[in-house]
Amino acid sequence: MTLSGLPPSQETPSPGQGAEHSPSCPPCLYCGGTEYQSLFTGVRDYLKYVPGAWEFHRCRGCGSATLAPHPLAEELAAFYPPVYGFTPEIGGASRLKKLLAAIEYRVFFAPQYGSQVRKTLGVTRAAAGARLLDIGCGRGLRLADFRSRGLEVHGMDFQPAVVEYVRDRLDIPAVCTDVPGLERHYEPGSFDLVSAFWVMEHLPSARGLVETMRRLVRPGGWLVLAVPQVDSLQAAYLGGRWVNVVEAPRHLSLPSRRGIHRLCAEAGLEEVRVLPDSSIACAGMVGLSLFPDAATAHLYGGGQAGALVKRILAAGVSLAAIPLSLAENYLLRRPASAIVFARRPPEKAVSGGKSSA
User: Fold this and answer.
1) Residues 296, 86 contacting (CB under 8 angstroms)
2) What are the sequence ranges of the domains in the chain?
3) Which one of 14, 134, 214, 314 counts the least CB within 10 Å of its CB?
4) pLDDT tens digits, residue range 99-139?
């Protein structure tokens, strides 16, 4: 399989119809189904970093979408540009970019992380001292917020520079590995919570991620995952322009609500809840969908003319879209991004006062 992908059927991504099966797709990452229909064709990387074109095929069983052709695991790291995630220091030597980054952090990112942390603590009832591992922690901004609420936090990421930043700048324990390698660093049942925010859609095995998280969390502990929702209203009305579609080939799949429930049930998890993510995070997807050249990699990575103007326009659209996201999230209950909470069953009491998992 090559990175060049399939030839585009047209200039811009559009909904497709009719494919009964997809030899270029693995079985559905969420339900294991093998019957697909074409969903989006001619998908190109909106960051303009990886050449080629892809398709998303929708599983007929659960409605989740899978990227075709599916990249090999060893190809994935090369899909990420040097500047990908946001940090408050991302502006570098430019005074203007430093100022913009500081404003962005206060207006968009800090409220988003705060909302996610509050929702997590509200659902899981995690108290001060609870141990949390965040998979794909990035620069640790969300972890720092969890730590400020009294949790003992640990991070994991596959990028060495990111892990070094989390360890040295934030003084948070972190390991550099992939998901399968986590169990070489931590014993089973080491954590009260294991989280993965916007990670699952990037991995070739959603099932592998959930099973690893389940083993690392203690009986009665919680798994917390933030994921885009392919059956959201945003996906319906933005179609092939939706930012989570044009994140191909970094996004290998886009789960549906039904697919998430199927995956969690088959992993033996209980008390599964799929709740709306931060409305600011969801609104930000609208801005980036309409102004893809406003992406972090374009503005702060350099080399894109007009990226600053487009970033400002995208920010304005995102702020204007917050009421729409609130309606999608809480009235219509079809959020663009959801936070999934699922609990590992607690140990059951047996005769003699002992218990077993």
Assistant:
1) yes
2) 14-78, 82-349
3) 14
4) 888 999 999 999 999 999 999 999 999 999 999 999 999 98
